[in-house]
Amino acid sequence: ARAGVIAMATELALAGQGGAAAMRQIAALVTESAYAAKLQTAAKWLERKDRDGGGAIAPAEVRRELGAGIAAEASCVTAAFLAFLHDERPFGELLQFVVRVGGDADTVGA
Description:
Blueprint: H1 2-14, H2 19-29, H3 33-52, H4 59-66, H5 76-85, H6 91-101, H7 105-109
C-alpha cells in the first residue's frame, strides 16, 4: 500500500482525474487500516473542495488527521491529498502549504 497510494494518485492525475473521486478510487483499493481512515478523511475534504471551493482546511488539521512524518503511513495520503487539493493552483502555493503542515515536509513535498 505504501508506494501504491502515490502511484495510484499519480496515475489518476495523469489521466485527468483528481479530487474526491480519485481519492475514493484509491480508498477502494487500499484497505490497510493505517491508510483507510485517512483516505476517507481526505476524500471528504476533497468533496468539500469540489462542492464549494474547499473552505479552509488548516495545515495543523492536515497534520493531525493525515500525518506528516517520514513513515509512509504518515506521509503518503497527505502527499496525495495536498496534490489534489492544489491541483488548480500555482505549485508554489502547494509547497508553502506543505511547509505550514510541518513535520517531515521534504518527504510530504516530494
